[in-house]
Design brief:
53% helix; 2 strands
């Protein structure tokens, strides 16, 4: 088989590490409290403990949240009823 070139393997490893760093860097933002670089999804700064608002996050409207909970319960109860009915029908 072919021999592995250590220099080429090292170059590939460096390229992968560079791509990973670039991927992480695009998700870094500055903490408004201390100026430390933190990831954009964090809710608390690991350095100063300041509260952060994650990028792209908006809390759900309470009315929408309530509606989703009700719909979830209705679907869950309907599924249980269907299961019970099917169990009764197939056990006869």
């Amino acid at each position: 088989m072919g021999k592995k070139d250590p220099e080429r393997e090292e170059q590939k490893a460096q390229e992968r590490a560079q791509k990973r760093r670039a991927q992480i860097e695009k998700h870094l933002v500055e903490c408004p409290h201390c100026g430390e670089k933190v990831l954009d999804h964090m809710t608390k700064c690991p350095k100063c403990g300041g509260v952060l608002v994650p990028r792209g996050y908006t809390p759900m409207d309470p009315k929408t949240e309530r509606t989703l909970k009700i719909v979830g319960w209705v679907i869950g109860i309907a599924a249980v009823i269907v299961f019970i009915v099917l169990t009764i029908v197939y056990n006869q």
